[in-house]
Amino acid sequence: MTTAISGGNISSNGGATITVRGVCWSTNPIPTINDSKTEDGAGEGSFVSNIRGLRANTTYYVRAYATNSKGTGYGSTISFKTKQGFTDTRDGNIYQTVTIGDQVWMAENLRYLPSVVESDTGSDTIAFYYVYGYEGTNVNAAKATEEYTTYGVLYNWSAACISCPQGWHLPSDEEWTQLIDYLGGENVAGGKLKETGTTHWYSPNIGATNETGFTALPGGYCRSRFGSFFHIGSNGFWWSSTDASYSTVQCLIMFHSNSRVERSFSNKSSGLSVRCIKD
Q1: Residue-level pLDDT at 239
Q2: Are 146 and 208 in a shared domain?
Q3: For the stretch 167-193, what's the b/e string if a residue is b when 16 or more beta carbons lie within 10 angstroms of its beta carbon?
Q4: Does any domain span residue 37?
Q5: Distance CA 163, CA 182 (A)
Q6: Cα(239)–Cα(223) distance, rounded to whole angstroms?
Q7: Which of 26, 40, 156, 210 has its CA 20 to 30 A from that of 52?
Q8: What does the CA dihedral 269, 234, 147, 208 come to, rounded to 10 degrees?
Q9: Which CATH number does the domain housing residue 22 bear?
Q10: Helix (H) or strand (E) holding 63
Q11: Are 42 and 65 in contact (CB under 8 A)?
């Protein structure tokens, strides 16, 4: 899934209160609100829009809109072409990629899902795959959920270690640290990595600029020992390949409430997101 960042500025309400604003886009040169669109609040002023679900290597047309009781007005149309992206030949998923310093990362959470289990199924050694909020074992049903489409799959550590496609791998703690240091350290790196706005992150999503294009999302995690999912919208959790003990592994956490990245630890049986890094 390919993404883009847009937005607009409503300088006049046209004589009536703006009830909804956002951007609309299409492969046709004149997009309208009958095409794909975001809804990014109400009233005058500037706003940021996160466009998702774009096809790779495709030209799109986008313009801002604002609606009040008198109708809908549009801004100027601009066009852009999405990048080629990387295609996972195992399932056909297409991933946007981004270069940060000397590293090439997937700019989306991994969505590889060969099987799926309920949240109360867990193991430190057997590979298990989860989709946030989904309680079942039907892969197609899990893939049909908004949580899968937006946030990807949650993997226990055994699954995370074997799930990146050929040519990619699960980043080590050292590779995560290299990324964090390149971006200025733990106190500010999270803001540079997080998706902007509050479409997916809870407000206030402090410090989020996504200036790297990494587009970190708050996918939450699965705690199989408790048989439940936690923290979607407020936190993102990502595995490293570096184990810390017999049952724990170093991981990465980002927050809606600050711009930090925290290097932490998780039980191997928990379900966390995966970001692959290129070999």
Answers
A1: 99
A2: yes
A3: ebebbebebbbbbbeebeebebbbbbb
A4: yes
A5: 26
A6: 14
A7: 156
A8: -120
A9: 2.60.40.10
A10: strand 59-68
A11: no
Share of the chain above pLDDT 70, in %: 99
**Chain segment 192-242, per-residue pLDDT in tens:** 999 988 889 999 999 999 989 899 999 999 998 889 999 999 999 999 999
Residues 231 and 271 in one domain: yes
Question: Token pair of 31, please?
Answer: 């997009």
Element (H, E) at 62: strand 59-68
CA angle (243 as vertex; 262, 193 as ends), nearest 5:
30
Tell me the residue ranges of DSSP E strands in 110-256: 129-130, 154-155, 168-169, 219-223, 228-232, 235-243, 248-255
**Residue 114 and residue 183 in one domain:** yes
Pair (20, 135) in one structural domain: no
- Which structural domain range is residue 146 located in? 95-278
State CA 182 to chain mean position distance. 21
Q: How many CB atoms lie within 10 A of CB 246?
A: 7
* Residue with the two structure tokens 């030949």: 89
pLDDT class for 54, splitting at 50, 70, 90?
confident
Task: Give residue 1's pLDDT band: very low, low, confident or very high (50, 70, 90).
Answer: low
The verdict on residue 57 lying in a domain is yes
Return the sign of the alpha-carbon dihedral for residues 267, 231, 91, 94: negative
